[in-house]
Amino acid sequence: MCSVHDTIEFEKRGIPATVVITQAFRNAAVFQFKGKGMEGHPYIELPHPISNLKPEEMQAVTLRFVEQTVKQLIA
């Protein structure tokens, strides 16, 4: 899960970062954050699956998480 590793590297450099995953990858993300010494790091968790959504459906899903994403990046 490269996006978790990228998030960690950004955070180490003082750049606020978060990762967007689907529910199916929750355990993997939690495990990787913990393994890299960042247990409890926040992430954005979308419902799963999303690959079958039409563009307008995906837009509706992602719009529900904009505020949470911004809060994580400015915290």
* Helical/strand content category: mainly alpha
From the spread of the alpha carbons, the general shape counts as globular
What is the strand content?
5-15%
Share of helix, binned: 40-55%
With helices defined by DSSP (H or I, 4 residues minimum), what is the helix count? 4
Kindly, what is the distance between the CA atoms of the first and last residues, rounded to a whole number of angstroms?
24 Å
Mean pLDDT: 96
Physical arrangement of strands within the biggest beta sheet: 1-2
Number of distinct beta strands: 2
Number of domains: 1
* Largest β sheet strand count, sense and barrel closure: 2 strands, parallel
Which series of helices and strands comes N to C?
HEHEHH
The value of Rg in angstroms is: 13 Å
Low-confidence segments? none
Summarize the structure.
By secondary structure, this protein is mainly alpha-helical.
List keywords for this structure.
75 residues; mainly alpha; two-stranded parallel ribbon; 4 helices; 2 strands
Characterise the protein shown here.
- The protein has 75 residues and is mainly α.
- The protein has helices spanning 2-12, 26-35, 55-63, 66-74; strands at 20-22, 44-46.
- The longest helix has 11 residues, at 2-12.
- The protein is globular.
